TrEMBL record:
Residues 120-322 form the Pentraxin (PTX) domain. SUPFAM superfamilies: Concanavalin A-like lectins/glucanases. This is Neuronal pentraxin receptor. Its cofactor is Ca(2+). The lineage of its organism: Eukaryota, Metazoa, Chordata, Craniata, Vertebrata. The keyword Metal-binding applies. PANTHER family: NEURONAL PENTRAXIN RECEPTOR, PENTRAXIN. Keywords: Calcium, Disulfide bond, Glycoprotein, Metal-binding, Receptor. GO terms for molecular function: metal ion binding. Coiled coil: none annotated. It comes from Myotis myotis (Greater mouse-eared bat). Pfam families: Pentaxin.
Length: 328
């Protein structure tokens, strides 16, 4: 099931709850959540730069109202602190902690809505070629009869082979799905150890959007770079279903289930927005993702912070690829 492009953002929701008990001082710390299911359509960098987006008036109004509530809460707590001159040291510490948390919230509001970082705005970085830095996707795959996998890649290999942006291994088959460029050879897609050469290139050290789709029916595949179809073919592991419950690794090629990495096949660089669907995306959908006008999250594997864990010195840092690649 494909997500619709440019879904409307939900109205921010703000809740404040506070109270004091007679037996002792306790606080119900306010909770605040600003939930946004999808960001607005991102900037198309192929066109002239557009002015910075304006935060909706309704959001400003909500934030102003919240800041007023927070300030009132701070004043109330200041009075309580003064009244605690004869109370225990522990009670005073609790009030100080509450005040500090509220003042941090107010400071965040004063920086505006730009402080919000969506759960998909991050990247995985592997700075050197080795056999121990990688990231693991924590969500298992189901059985698949078709897929599209898309990602943003910036290789830092220096033109010596781009290594392995990702590999998916299952029990009994280490090369269930692998994207690999070893040495001077072309980039290859492996499915169940069957190979197709892809006309893709990452050798300029810049950001590139890569999408690959495949279906078990006749083994049809397509490869896109930066929104353009670069190649297609058939008879790649035809009628083979992708096996479920394997291990998906970013940055290393697996010779056994979840391990035995080879440094010569490691990816060096940055990976962002790795998404996977259980069907072939249309050319228009791929183009929309690539030019940042129609972002989509994978219906099988979405690029979410909680689903990706970095190991061995690989880093996970906040990064919006549609903004950040313009400055790279």
């Amino acid at each position: 099931m494909s997500l619709g492009p440019n879904a409307a953002a939900r109205t921010p929701c703000v809740t404040l709850d506070s109270g004091l008990t007679s037996g002792g001082l306790s606080f119900h710390v306010f909770t605040m959540s600003i939930s946004t299911q999808e960001l607005p359509a991102r900037v198309n960098f192929s066109a002239a730069p557009a002015p910075a987006p304006v935060v909706p008036t309704a959001l400003h109004s909500k934030m102003d109202k919240l800041e007023g509530q927070l300030l009132a809460k701070v004043l109330a707590l200041e009075k309580e602190r003064a009244a605690l001159s004869h109370s225990s040291h522990q009670q005073r510490q609790e009030v100080e902690k509450e005040l500090g948390a509220l003042q941090d919230r107010i400071a965040g509001l004063e920086h505006g809505s730009s402080a919000y970082s969506p759960p998909d705005a991050f990247k995985i970085s592997i700075p050197i070629r080795n056999n121990y830095m990688y990231a693991r996707v924590r969500k298992p795959l189901p059985e698949l009869y078709a897929f599209t996998v898309c990602m943003w890649l910036r290789s830092r290999s220096g033109g010596t082979g781009q290594g392995t942006p990702f590999s998916y291994s299952v029990l009994g088959q280490a090369n269930e799905i692998v994207l690999l460029e070893a040495g001077p050879d072309p980039m290859e897609l492996l499915i169940n150890d069957k190979v197709a050469q892809l006309p893709l290139s990452l050798k300029d050290n810049g950001w590139h959007h890569i999408c690959i789709s495949w279906t078990t029916r006749d083994g049809l595949w397509s490869a896109y770079q930066d929104g353009e179809l670069r190649g297609s073919g058939e008879n790649l592991a035809a009628w083979h279903p992708i096996k479920p419950h394997g291990i998906l690794i970013l940055g290393q090629e697996q010779d056994t289930l979840g391990g035995r990495f080879d440094a010569t096949q490691a990816f060096v660089g940055d990976i962002a927005q790795f998404n996977l669907w259980d069907h072939a995306l249309t050319s228009a959908q791929v183009l929309g993702i690539a030019n940042c006008t129609g972002p989509l999250l994978g219906n099988v594997l979405p690029w979410e912070d909680k689903l990706v864990e970095a190991f061995g010195g690989a880093t996970k840092t906040a990064f919006d690829v549609c903004k950040g690649r313009a400055r790279a």
